[in-house]
Design goal:
- The complex is a heterodimer of chains A (104) and B (178).
- With 104 residues, chain A is mostly helical.
- Chain A is 75% helix and 0% strand.
- Chain B has 178 residues and is mostly helical.
- Chain B starts with a helix and ends in a 10-residue tail after the last helix.
- The longest helix of chain B has 26 residues.
- In chain B, 71% of the residues lie in helices and 0% in strands.
- Classes of the chains: A mainly alpha (104), B mainly alpha (178).
- The interface between A and B is large, with 73 and 85 residues.
């Protein structure tokens, strides 16, 4: 059994699901951001898998898009963690169930 | 038994399973660990597994970019944030989860839906190309057809840098102003 496209797609689906679970259940805001990074990694894995094993084997598209994905994930992680730090400086806690002052 | 394991499947399958196991174990650690620091180090394992998977798929430049940016940049940033926002004096569990049964139900639902959609479909494939370096191809693409997204991504990173500095600094309130 050689490794094919389906193996990578199933693996990326599992990583996506675990990242999704992390986003919806974590109360720590940094934990939620970790889940978002897992989701982005799963998407990048899909791109590269299709670039290698799919029908249109276009390396310049299948590997350039994950590079942009990594760049955007880095920018988003920086800004997201800056916001988490600002929340911690103002509230003393980053528990998503305690920082609820906008909730009615 | 070792001979049967090595003769029925090629060695590349075992290499893939090793990287895949490391990645999934890391992702599971991020999702289910009780301590936020354990989650951060499990995320390190997940990123390292993805580095191996990229190298397995002949994406050599992307693997090194993933290592340098995700492990060396984003993970260090996450660890800083964890250490700066974690009260070490807390005696409680430092990373509780909310709505765990509903979360597990959603997890199984999403996993089964995605795997059914992906594995049940007959994907059109071509024979796997041999391993080849990709750095020159990606460089030509980034400075050729994809020059505009490349430059815009640079501006985005500059904006994110400025935003992070402005948002995270402490405001020094003047006592003189009313």
């Amino acid at each position: 059994m050689t490794v094919g496209l389906t193996h990578f797609l199933v693996l990326a689906a599992i990583i996506f699901s675990l990242g999704f679970y992390t986003v919806i259940t974590r109360t720590n805001a940094v934990g939620v951001l970790m889940g978002v990074e897992l989701i982005l990694n799963a998407a990048n894995l899909n791109f590269v898998a299709f670039a290698r094993y799919g029908a249109v084997q276009n390396v310049t598209v299948g590997q350039v898009f994950p590079i942009f994905g990594i760049m955007i994930a880095a920018a988003e992680a920086a800004v997201g963690l800056a916001i988490v730090l600002a929340i911690f400086q103002n509230w003393g806690s980053i528990d998503t169930q305690r920082t609820t002052s906008l909730r009615q | 038994m070792l001979e049967s394991l090595l003769s029925n499947v090629p060695i590349s399958f075992h290499v893939f399973m090793l990287f895949a196991t490391v990645t999934v174990a890391g992702a599971a650690g991020v999702a289910f660990a009780r301590n936020i620091v354990y989650s951060a180090f499990a995320l390190l394992a997940a990123f390292a597994g993805v580095v191996g998977l990229f190298a397995f798929m002949s994406a050599d430049f992307l693997a090194v970019v993933q290592l340098m940016v995700y492990v060396g940049g984003i993970l260090v940033l996450i660890l800083f944030a964890v250490m700066l926002t974690n009260r070490i004096t807390d005696t409680q569990r430092s990373n509780p989860s909310m709505h765990v049964p509903m979360g597990l139900a959603m997890l199984t639902l999403v996993t089964t839906t995605l795997i059914a959609a992906v594995a049940g479909h007959d994907w059109p494939t071509k024979p796997t190309p041999p391993y080849a370096p990709t750095t020159a191809l990606i460089g030509d693409a980034l400075l050729g057809p994809y020059l505009l997204p490349f430059e815009v991504a640079g501006i985005l990173l500059l904006a994110a840098l400025l935003a992070a500095v402005v948002v995270a600094r402490k405001e020094i309130k003047d006592e003189d102003d009313a």
